[in-house]
Design a protein that fits this description.
By secondary structure, the chain is an alpha/beta fold. It has 12 helices and 8 strands. The protein binds NADP nicotinamide-adenine-dinucleotide phosphate.
């Protein structure tokens, strides 16, 4: 495959746009990108980016090497069912949460090369993390291509078995909400302690950002980083002992297990649509 294989996006909502913008920013030529969306206003704004914007999914898929499925999971089966121009030699990349590869191949072909991804919301800011899974039909060069497309929205990693995508959903898919929840609680607590809301918000968000930078860019793991800021008899130790006594770690364990089992349930629902 060449450097700039034609890519078609079916559905040009938030997620597709962030990938398209990322690709354009990474010098992928607009002439090699097509997006299809039913809404005329969406197509107009896509055309303004210098890519081809189409209404007809069949035309959009005909000449693509890669087709990125970026519609809502609930409609994916019907959308694919109405496209007759998908060929097994084209790489199908689905970013639809919860739709299993078995369904995608049942709706296309048993020989279809398929990559199923689980991105997360920070992808909209180019700061996402996407886990990818490929079926056996996907070649090495197609894997590299899938990685390149999803890299446009942040970091990527591969999982070896599809069921791990449910665990990924529990950690990074739903994960941003856990951090927002923690931020909400810290902002509320800060205001109860006497700070004005804007100050509590700024302190909380910059602290979350700073902690993430330390965990990501530094050489220490989160456990060591936490220990390093927890002096015996100090304020952090007092706060952490209250979190421990309340069983916050166990609660998080149960929360992630709940998210994973909900992801498994949704796969059953969406896979039959
Ligand atoms: N946003 C996230 O953080 C996130 C995270 C992980 C996974 N995902 C997955 O990414 C996918 C897209 O999410 P999103 O947030 O980008 O959703 P979205 O903004 O609703 O985008 C979906 C787009 O598909 C269009 N569409 C609907 N029917 C179509 C058809 N028959 N042919 C072509 N386009 C059609 C919609 O148009 P109309 O608006 O006119 O209906 C809309 O523009 C979903 O499957 C979701 O599970 C999203």
């Amino acid at each position: 495959m060449s450097d700039h294989n034609p890519i078609t996006f079916i559905g040009a909502g938030n997620m597709a746009r962030s990938l398209i913008n990322g690709l354009l920013n990474n010098d992928y030529p607009g002439s090699a990108i097509t997006a299809s969306d039913p809404l005329a206003s969406q197509r107009e704004s896509l055309a303004a980016l210098g890519i081809q914007a189409l209404e007809d999914n069949n035309v959009a898929c005909a000449d693509a090497d890669i087709i990125v499925l970026a519609v809502k999971p609930q409609v994916l089966g019907a959308v694919i069912g109405a496209i007759s121009t998908i060929r097994p030699d084209q790489l199908l990349i689905s970013i639809a949460a919860g739709v299993p590869v078995a369904s995608l191949s049942a709706w296309t072909s048993a020989d279809q090369a398929i990559v199923r991804c689980m991105p997360n919301t920070p992808a909209l800011m180019g700061a996402g993390i996407t886990a990818l899974y490929s079926n056996e039909q996907v070649s090495k060069s197609q894997r590299q291509l899938a990685e390149r497309i999803l890299d446009a929205a942040g970091k990527t990693l591969w999982v070896d078995t599809e069921d791990l995508l449910d665990a990924v959903t529990a950690v990074s898919g739903s994960g941003p909400a856990y951090f927002f929840y923690l931020m909400e609680a810290m902002i509320e607590a800060g205001t109860r302690l006497g700070l004005d809301a804007a100050t509590a918000r700024k302190l909380t968000i910059e602290t979350a950002y700073g902690a993430a930078v330390m965990a990501r860019e530094g050489s220490e793991n989160p456990t060591t980083l936490r220990q390093n800021v927890t002096s015996p008899g100090g304020t952090t130790e007092r706060a952490l002992s209250i979190l421990d006594a309340a069983g916050v770690k166990d609660t998080l364990d149960a929360a992630l297990a709940g998210a994973m089992s909900r992801s498994q349930e949704l796969a059953e629902e969406f896979g039959q649509s």
